[in-house]
Write a structure and sequence with these properties.
Number of helices: 16
Shape: flat
Strand content: under 5%
Radius of gyration: 26 Å
Largest sheet: none
């Protein structure tokens, strides 16, 4: 399979153009000009090919497009946006899913091209428990959460088996169909939370069960909570329809002091010093 490095071709033309016109545009202008030039390049006929990059890929069937992507990655030839756009336009999810069992590069491209594909849910759940990459896991969780009810049983199974529990809690907290089992798990984990209290509070907020309000109100009233924990707890309480108006003193909290100092600097920079005349 012959591969074309369209990005390499574009970079060559771009370098020449920038060299001749460097003093005609500001750096900010170049940031707008270059993407527009790249988009136009996609519809520019390449003499040696007799067609534009977009035309070249448009003539391929779905299988050939995905095979071309794999060949680019295997041979370390730059993958252009024109190839990715062509694949995305086909909705070739079933052909892309096998890449999720491939190399790191294949997984990365498949995740990007598949997005929140319902067809890829089982593979995303597998990657969530098998991948060594936190970036891959976080991406999978973001996609899975959109179909939390579809994977609820598997998430509960993994949680009960002690597999990637924090990720499973995040998924379960996004379930729309409520259950006492999920509620009790989220409450239990909230009560056991230590450094991750803000995250566990966010799970209760996301789940949206008002029965959690008394537990949240009891926790926010404790003397030992930090300012960041207070903020997340207050948000969770308000998201569930409650309120907490008691005045609290966080003047000795490091996070609170950092925010206050940052705010003060912004005032000094943009609003002048307090004693400016």
């Amino acid at each position: 399979m012959k591969l074309y490095d369209f990005d390499g071709m574009f970079d060559e033309k771009l370098s020449e153009f920038v060299r001749k016109n460097a003093d005609k545009h500001t750096e900010r202008e170049w940031e707008d000009i270059i993407p527009a030039m790249y988009a136009r390049f996609g519809d520019t006929v390449i003499k040696s090919l007799g067609k534009s990059p977009n035309e070249y890929y448009a003539e391929m069937d779905d299988k050939t497009l995905v095979a071309t992507l794999r060949a680019h990655l295997k041979q370390d030839v730059a993958v252009s946006e024109f190839l990715c756009n062509a694949i995305e336009s086909r909705g070739a999810d079933e052909l892309l899913i096998p890449l999720l069992s491939g190399t790191d590069d294949e997984i990365a491209y498949a995740l990007n091209l598949l997005g929140a594909s319902k067809a890829a849910l089982s593979e995303y759940m597998r990657l969530l428990t098998e991948s060594a990459s936190e970036d891959v896991k976080n991406t999978c969780v973001d996609y899975i959460k959109e179909y939390a009810d579809e994977v609820k049983d598997k998430a509960l199974e993994n949680y009960n088996a002690g597999i990637e529990r924090e990720y499973m809690l995040e998924i379960l907290s996004r379930c729309v169909l409520k259950s006492d089992e999920i509620y009790e798990i989220l409450i239990k984990e909230f009560k056991l939370a230590d450094d991750n209290l803000p995250m566990r509070a966010s799970y209760l907020a996301a789940y949206g069960d008002e029965r959690a309000l008394p537990v949240l109100l009891d926790k926010i009233d404790e003397d030992g909570i930090t300012f960041i924990e207070y903020q997340e707890l207050k948000y969770a309480i308000e998201s569930l329809g409650g309120s907490y108006d008691k005045e609290r003193d966080f003047s000795n909290d490091e996070y609170y002091q950092a925010i206050k100092a940052h705010s003060a600097n912004e005032v000094n920079i943009f609003g002048g010093l307090p004693d400016d005349k």
